[in-house]
Design brief:
The structure holds two protein chains of two kinds. By secondary structure, chain A is α/β, with parallel strands linked by helices. The longest helix of chain A has 17 residues. In chain B, α6 links the parallel β7 and β8. Chain B has a single domain, classed as P-loop containing nucleotide triphosphate hydrolases (Rossmann fold), CATH 3.40.50. Chain B contains eight helices and ten strands. By secondary structure, chain B is α/β, with parallel strands linked by helices. In chain B, α5 packs parallel to α6. Chain B has a six-stranded mixed sheet with strand order 6-7-8-3-9-10, sandwiched between helices. The chains are: A alpha/beta, B alpha/beta.
């Protein structure tokens, strides 16, 4: 922590900030210092002691602004379809490319948004606000739908000096606009803590599809926090593909602020060795006739640990809420652990809310059935596991992106 | 092709098969009839290699010790079990499963694997012979299939894999008369000098459509009586009581 304080002062100096910004960052930094990294005594972190995970994986927590950009690893880029790009290279924006769009309809700003997003202090969001080196806000103007998806690449290289990276993006969708977004990790560095904060403001009738992909095996520790605000009749579709990092916690806080808004959070956690991934969601139904749907499928091998904590909150105003969550986990070795914590907190009386959770091994009879048709044991298991995961992947409404994710998983058709 | 000598099988320390003897020659159709709990399904499971049984005795299949072969090796060598209760496999497309299965068998036998187009042609032909709605093949394997569709799917797999020994475990159960006829036609169409069948059934009904060369009565883990197809009728009239 002492080292981080020294580093923080250097960052403040190097970024040449306004007094107002300095105060904002200092305030956030102090909030982080007062709380520290969350540990298992914090209810939301009881299955993932981040403080312990960081201290046992990162020897010397340092923060630099890596302004010297290395080479971009081209193999990270998706070549299956044309797309707009924002590239973060070692935490610094190295490219912004919206060449498929009408530039009067997509607005880019780089001044850090200093509005408080939440009353409660999230020390990791505070840390992000304090140390973020490069920031981008994308505003999609009214009635505009992007022609091509936007991919935000988060690439790290071996040249990275800092052991922590803080990324922050805000996405604003004005009335009746739409955006398909992929957040793609390309990790080439080792043993870093990567802290990603994204805010989404989705106006009336707007649609956001957000696909979060962490697919390449890497030794990094990641936290991704999404705060989503939904206005009347807007839609937020989220898919989490969580399989690459050593540790990953995806936290989504979603506020259904007005009538007929809906949120979908589907995802898969697919882990080997001693990987440890968590999905934590808070869905807040704050207006009537709002809908939420969540399906999380987990496959755990070796000593892996998977966690899904899903909370559905229904305000007393939010009559006719429809909330659903289902978690299914396959535990393929005796040493795996899956923790599920569904929570329903309901203050309205005319609602439809349900949750379910199952965990177990592959069905031996199903393996026998497939092997009796000539498939090897390995082939049978792969087919069953892919079939298990496909259930969640099929929820992706964008065909192109669905196929991309299927290929990444290794589902053949 | 298949010789079973003194076959015993235990599960959870309970002896189910208690010294079963049977010989099947190429081209023959054998029916095994017996009351509930006599060991009919255990016999089909043991022959196709299901784990969990303690097995003793000799089972020779084309001069090889069948009991030493893995489940999938038995499939590669032409043994096919049509399940009494075909499993529902969510997320696995029926067509992809059929192609994976056929190509696994072909590969093991050193034959050329079928590409997507060749496979589609074959599966269309076989499906239409069985009056099997092609659209069902693009659905998840057995998921939401009716009882009849599941059984037809088993027979479709059988006709695609073209096995040497087909074991039909109560394929007639849960079939209405029309489906029974279609399934029987499918089996009859697969009959040849090389392919043999072991039909396990509770009732004589199926044997009206698939005429067996031999009928065996399995009671309490042993074959107590063998005869021609007329034995099935006799059982229908007198019941198993008279034999036990």
């Amino acid at each position: 922590m002492e080292q981080l304080k020294v580093d923080f002062d250097k960052v403040i100096e190097s970024l040449k900030l306004s007094r107002e910004s300095i105060n904002f960052r200092k305030k956030n930094f102090n909030q982080f210092i007062n709380n520290g990294f969350p540990n298992k005594r914090v209810e939301d972190w009881k299955f993932s002691d981040l403080n312990q995970i960081i201290s046992s994986n990162i020897e010397n927590l340092r923060f630099y602004t890596d302004l010297e950009l290395g080479e971009t690893d081209e193999s990270t880029f998706i070549d299956k379809f044309a797309h707009n790009k924002i590239i973060f290279l070692n935490g610094i924006i190295s490219k912004v490319d919206f060449s498929f769009e009408d530039d009067s309809k997509v607005l880019i700003t780089n001044d850090l948004n200093q509005n408080e997003t939440s009353k409660e202090v999230n020390p990791l969001v505070s840390l992000n606000n304090a140390l973020v080196a490069s920031y981008i806000r994308v505003t999609v103007k009214e009635n505009y739908s992007l022609n091509k998806p936007l991919i935000i690449y988060n690439i790290t290289t071996k040249k990275l000096k800092s052991t922590t990276i803080n990324l922050k993006t805000d996405i604003v969708l004005e009335k009746n606009s739409s955006l398909k977004l992929i957040n793609l990790c390309g990790d080439n560095s080792e043993n870093n803590f990567i802290n990603i904060v994204q805010n989404f403001d989705i106006s009336q009738d707007a649609i956001l599809k957000n696909y979060k992909i962490d697919h390449k095996k890497n030794s990094n520790i990641k936290y991704s926090y999404n705060n989503i605000n939904l206005e009347k009749n807007s839609i937020s579709e989220n898919f989490i593909f969580s399989t690459g990092s050593k540790f990953m916690k995806n936290e989504i806080n979603c506020n259904l602020n007005d009538k007929y808004s809906s949120a979908f959070i589907n995802g898969i956690i697919n882990l080997t060795n001693s990987q440890h991934h968590e999905i934590k969601t808070n869905i807040n139904h704050l207006a009537e006739n709002t809908k939420s749907y969540q399906l999380i499928k987990s496959v755990l091998n070796d000593n892996a640990k998977g966690i899904y904590q899903g909370k559905i909150y229904v305000d007393s105003k939010a009559q006719k809420t429809n909330g659903y969550q289902l978690s299914k986990a396959l535990l393929l070795s005796e040493n795996t652990e899956f923790d599920g914590k569904p929570e329903l907190e309901i203050y309205a009386d005319d609602v439809k809310c349900s949750h379910g959770a199952t965990s177990g091994n592959l069905d031996e009879d199903a393996i026998f059935y497939l092997m009796s048709r000539g498939l090897s044991n390995q082939q049978s298991k792969e087919l069953l596991i892919n079939g298990f995961l496909l259930d969640a992947v099929e929820k992706i409404t964008d065909i192109e992106i669905k196929d991309l994710i299927k290929k990444m998983i290794g589902i053949v058709e | 092709m298949l010789q079973i000598k003194d076959l015993k099988a235990k599960i959870d320390n309970k002896e189910i098969l208690k010294g079963l003897n049977l010989e099947i020659k190429p081209g023959e159709v054998h029916a095994i009839m017996g009351p509930n709990g006599s060991g009919k399904s255990t016999l089909s499971n043991v022959l196709s290699g299901k784990k969990g049984y303690t097995v003793s005795g000799d089972v020779t299949y084309f001069n090889e010790n069948l009991l030493e072969l893995e489940i999938e090796e038995r499939a590669h060598k032409g043994i096919f079990l049509a399940f009494q209760y075909p499993l529902e496999i969510p997320g696995v497309n029926t067509n992809i499963f059929l192609k994976t299965s056929l190509n696994a068998v072909k590969k093991a036998n050193g034959e050329k694997e079928l590409d997507a187009i060749e496979f589609l042609k074959l599966v269309k032909k076989k499906a239409s012979e069985l009056k099997f709605d092609e659209n069902i093949l693009s659905r998840q394997l057995n998921v939401g299939f009716s009882g009849g569709e599941k059984k037809k799917n088993e027979i479709l797999q059988m006709s695609i894999l073209n096995p040497k020994l087909s074991i039909l475990d109560e394929t007639d159960s849960g079939l209405d008369i029309d489906a029974l006829k279609i399934v029987s036609d499918g089996v009859n169409a697969s009959r040849s000098k090389e392919s043999s069948f072991l039909i396990i059934t509770h009732y004589q009904r199926l044997l009206e459509y698939i005429k067996p060369d031999f009928v065996h009565v399995l009671i309490n883990g042993q074959i107590v009586k063998s005869g021609g197809s007329e034995l099935a009728l006799e059982l229908e009239n007198k019941g198993y009581e008279s034999l036990s």
